[in-house]
Amino acid sequence: MKHATLRALAALLCLLLAVGAAACGENPGQAAAPTPDAAAAPERDAVAVEVGDKYAVTYGEVEEAYNYLVEMMSYYGMAAPTAEADIESYQNEALAMLVETRKLLYFADELGVGALSEQEEADVQALVDADMEYYMEGFRATAEDEGAEDVDARAYELFDEELAAYEMHMDHIEYAEYLYEMYAEQQVIENLEAHIRSTAAIDADDVQAYYDQLVESQTAAYAEDPSLYFDEEENFEMNGGDPSVVVPEGYLRVKAIAVFPQGTLDASYEEKTAQMADYEAEYGRLALTGADAARRSEIETLYAALKLETDAMYAAYMQDAKAKIDEAHALLEAGGDFDEVLASHGEDPTFTDYTLIAERGRLMSETAGADDWDDALRAAALALADGAYSDVVQVGDAYYILCRVGGEAAGTRPLDEVHDAVEAAALLAEQDSVWAEQEAEWDEDDSMLVYHEEVYRSIGK
């Protein structure tokens, strides 16, 4: 069983999406600053904070979140708090994390988006099933190693034992229910955010203003450091956001068919190449003094033999990739379309998975240091005419065929050329603003909260 993974999930559940009567625990024997008198402590499901009529934060959840905070701070050399004010500060921080999620669920209900659709419920269940199967694979392996007659039954026993060891106060069935609740809450909160963001709207003036702001900021930024263009434009092409409306000099677009070896080198390759390096060093020392000609001759023989061996190993390692890139080159030589050969033979998803890069090619700077292209590939691309493709180029353990699409036109792009991208970025910014403003407003609204300090103020004392 992957203990670290289960432990990490337990911590995540405690801090981010802890649910009603389910609470998580620390590694056995390592819980930080537990409530000293367990007999006097409230029940774990005692309500610490009411959030409207439907939601609540329990004593157990606050205790576990508090302990986790103390544990995290200990990694920075901070001891568990002992002063009353410090303890209450930690309690309040733990409460805030837990209450935040409940408040969002409360507001989702208020706005009518608190219920999942049948498809969303099915998707949540699929996530739970995948998680449970992941854990059960480990427990089944342990049960098989033990020689259990009923592997599944023993695996479930092991699951329950693991949950008990981490003081998670549930069996595997309850744990699955817990996961469902966690994922369901996450989906509700995503739906709530989508609902609020859908209220954002912009007009033509907003688009123009956003464009003007981009022109101003990018003109200044790229004048100071033109290499920023590569990072910012590629980020836009891969992830969306702000497009580059200003283009500095010195960039072109390139497509690449890249092929990589799929196997592994012979296990002795590294050892043999290390021995060759030792021979080179020894030979160099002897050559400096002209001493021991016999040993130098012996080293030459040994080195040559190792080189034959390692070259053969490397050729075997690369042979399938070499055959594939040669086949791609032959298709191009026969008149094949570069994009079609790229789709059928290329193995770098950068050139196929991102629509804008697949259409335009990937940015490349004409000068080294302004992008992440290898200089050998840069030299090959710069030697091409627009629309032409290169011979096979090897860089490290990879083969490439490059196609130079063309130069990137420098200057400020007019709004009509980039309107849709700017409009999308402006709307995204407005949606971010609307959501942030709504969150801030909700943060200030505690009207639905009822705190029961007598339940949780003993934690950590």
UniProtKB/TrEMBL annotation:
Keywords: Isomerase, Rotamase, Signal. It comes from the Bacteria. The keyword Ribonucleoprotein does not apply. The keyword tRNA-binding does not apply. InterPro entries: PPIase_dom_sf, PPIase_PpiC. Residues 296-406 form the PpiC domain. Residues 1-23 form the signal peptide. One of its GO terms (molecular function) is peptidyl-prolyl cis-trans isomerase activity. This is PpiC domain-containing protein.
